[in-house]
Specification:
This protein is mostly helical. It has 30 helices and nine strands. A five-stranded mixed sheet has the order 4-3-7-9-8. A two-stranded antiparallel ribbon has the order 1-2. Helix 1 packs parallel to helix 9, helix 13 runs antiparallel to helix 14 and helix 19 crosses helix 22.
Length: 692
């Protein structure tokens, strides 16, 4: 890849990068120590420990192993009790949630220590992502300008949020970025060495998240455009009688190279790791688990005497592979891909923009992007977009219609890396917007680093154009410019007419750069709940969307702190959504609650030796004039509350008992989208606390 930027001394940019990474690390560590386990960590942490400690892949097959395994490595030094005698491990089909609860909260382990140690792996991957953004940007923009996309990533509340959780989203962003980088490096400089690294990077990406399988069609798209650009470049220079042979051979070489990248990735990276992590997974259980999981996939197996549907044939082939000791590692990988395909088509019920729905909407990702990205980052991106569009318009106007195609070919030859990023962003956004699985802005994370790099490139061209005399001259005239010292050239460029424009542009840029980290600092440590000012801010973003956009169960530790600081709380009803255990943190003060149990303040609690599994019996609701019980407090996750109280989309159903009607009649919510009864207190941002 060619260098477009200035050759500035490397020491300052590297020191600045180190400082950026140090601040990002500190912010993520702060948030990690304050956040309880979020929903997905309840499954991912025990699954990862099962991979590295037991070499057994029976838990959480719908996600690849690498992030979970890296998170579990520090746990080996803690030697926690792993309840492999429990039925969740021995009998259940993918008993990940039960196993997670047993492992973290019911086996005598220190849950906080396990969760915090496991999060170090994702935090290090996030720092690696920031570093890779810088070094790829340095090749495109130069040493100093490469700091801009690194800064945007390091102070993105979304990246800081998911960067310290044991989930696969940061891994997906890193996999896409590294896979694309090394693939383009091979295209620009074909060699066996670069081919090998491209294959290894592709394989590592496949172990991060199954959505990264989109690299396969994406690489074919890139190779097609790259081949077409080389054909256009060499067409006139090639004799007409030799064109067919020359370009056919070239097409075959490109196709063969892409296939080689895939084979290297799958056979040298994916297969060995899955082989290791299925080593102690009994083959009989793997077969039965696979058959059960895929029983209903693509309408199930075909009737006797009939051929299977194409997708069902893939499922049947996967079952067949699981029975073979040699192919069963690939069978486990393919099972995860099929499970993700099945889940994505099924959607997910959640709250968004004033209604609860399971079908999703194409507005979901554009809206969440506009409301969850910091405003300074949005300004940087959209100004860059407008500058790019204006540059294209001016360039097209300067060409006749017949030569616009030559402009595009010239653009591909000079800016193929930039073009590749644009293609992936459009491709991935189109795929995401079509999916009904609208469960979080985090799913757009693979495109965010690419957007930042493109934005930095546009800003560099815009700002450099106001101060570079040599760069502003016509191409034919640049050779005649005197080679003046840099300071003198700069002063010559700063004419009276250019100076105001220069100062205005740099003033805008400076304001945005100062504003950006302030957004991260002011939202810390509540990065998951971050919404920008247009979205209601970190405290009010729940009115727009919940789930992993706002409430993933991260505030249970803060609820514990609240209860401990209020000695008057003897009992508290808790309706919690997330990966934590209210009973583990609150002990006997916690009463497991849900809407259908009614108003806790009108419910009698009888603690005795014959109490149910929660340690108490609940009588029928008492009338308003009856004796008041000891439960005077209710803590409920806002994700649950929004899903229970907000209007349903057309065709959706909900049990009236689950709608918290007693609470909304007891405390009327304010008028407006997403409003719920105003709480007396909040634990963090996501657990609403009511004094009854």
């Amino acid at each position: 890849m060619r260098f477009l930027g200035e050759k500035s001394p490397l020491l300052f940019p590297l020191l600045a990068l180190a400082l950026i990474c140090a601040v990002a690390f500190s912010l993520m560590l702060w948030a990690s120590f304050g956040d309880s386990a979020i929903m997905d960590e309840l499954a991912h942490i025990p699954a990862g420990y099962g991979y590295v400690h037991n070499l057994d892949y029976r838990l959480n097959p719908e996600h690849p192993p690498l992030v979970k395994a890296l998170a579990a490595l520090p746990l080996l030094f803690l030697n926690p009790n792993f309840p492999t005698n429990d039925s969740a491990w021995t009998k259940d089909i993918n008993g990940q949630w039960t196993m997670g609860a047993k492992f973290l909260y019911e086996s005598g382990n220190d849950a906080n220590l396990i969760v915090r140690a496991a999060r170090m792996g994702p935090i290090l991957l996030t720092l690696l992502l920031i570093i890779l953004i810088y070094f790829w940007s340095r090749e495109l923009l130069g040493n100093r300008w490469a700091l801009l996309p690194a800064l945007l990533a390091a102070f993105s509340p979304t990246i800081l949020a998911h960067g310290h959780y044991v989930t696969t989203d940061i891994g997906a962003a890193l996999g896409i970025l590294s896979g694309t980088y090394f693939f383009l490096k091979f295209l620009f400089a074909p060699s066996k060495r670069n081919l090998f690294f491209a294959g290894i990077a592709f394989g590592m990406a496949q172990l991060m998240k199954f959505s990264v399988v989109l690299l396969i069609p994406y690489f074919f798209i890139l190779i097609a455009f790259f081949f077409a650009s080389t054909v256009a470049r060499d067409w006139k220079e090639t004799d007409s009688s030799a064109r067919l042979k020359r370009f056919s051979v070239r097409a075959w070489r490109y196709f063969r190279s892409v296939i080689a990248v895939f084979l290297i990735g799958y056979f040298l990276v994916v297969y060995p790791l899955y082989f290791l992590f299925t080593l102690n997974y009994p083959i009989q259980k793997q077969v039965s688990d696979t058959e059960f999981t895929l029983a209903s996939f693509a309408d199930g197996p075909p009737a006797a005497g009939k051929f299977c549907k194409p997708l069902r044939c893939v499922a049947d082939f996967d079952i067949w592979m699981s029975k073979n000791p040699v192919t069963r590692p690939f069978a486990e990988y393919l099972l995860g891909v099929l499970m993700v395909t099945q889940r994505a088509s099924g959607g997910n019920t959640n709250y968004f923009l004033g209604e609860v729905s399971s079908t999703g909407t194409r507005l979901y990702f554009p809206v969440t992007y506009l409301l969850k990205e910091p405003l300074p980052a949005l300004f940087i991106v959209f100004i860059a977009l407008l500058l790019g569009i204006w540059a294209i318009v001016k360039r097209v106007k300067s060409y006749k219609l017949k030569v616009i195609s030559y402009f595009f070919i010239d653009y591909l030859g000079l800016n193929f890396a930039e073009f590749s990023m644009i293609v992936f962003i459009l491709f991935y956004w189109a795929y995401s917007m079509k999916s009904p699985l609208n469960i979080g802005f985090r799913h757009l994370m693979p495109t965010i680093p690419l957007i930042y790099i493109l934005a930095a490139s546009s800003w560099k061209r815009w700002l450099a154009g106001t101060i570079s005399l040599r760069g502003s001259a016509p191409a034919d005239d640049r050779s005649n410019l005197p080679k003046l010292p840099g300071l003198l050239r700069l002063r010559l460029a700063m004419t009276l007419s250019a100076l105001p424009k220069l100062l205005a542009r740099y003033a805008i840029f400076a304001v945005l750069l100062i504003w950006l980290p302030l957004e991260a600092f002011f939202s810390a440590p509540y990065f998951l709940s971050y919404f920008n000012e247009l979205g209601g801010g970190t405290r009010g973003g729940y009115r727009v969307a919940t789930d992993s956009n706002y409430d993933w169960g991260q505030d249970l530790l803060r609820l514990q702190t609240f209860v401990d600081s209020h000695p008057e709380i003897d009992k508290i009803a808790v309706d919690y959504f997330g990966g934590g255990s209210p009973k583990y943190y609150l002990g006997e003060k916690e009463i497991d609650w849900r809407s259908s149990l009614g108003n806790p303040s009108q419910t009698q609690i009888n603690a005795d030796e014959n109490a149910d599994k929660r340690g108490y019996n609940i009588s029928e609701n008492l009338g308003n004039n009856q004796r008041k019980s000891a439960i005077e407090w209710l803590a409920v996750s806002i994700n649950t509350l929004e899903s229970a109280t907000q209007p349903l989309a057309l065709g959706q159903n909900r049990n009236p008992d689950d709608e918290y009607r007693w609470l909304t009649s007891f405390r009327q919510p304010a008028v407006g989208m997403g409003n719920v009864p105003e709480p007396d207190f909040k634990a963090g941002t996501s657990i609403f606390i009511y004094k009854l």
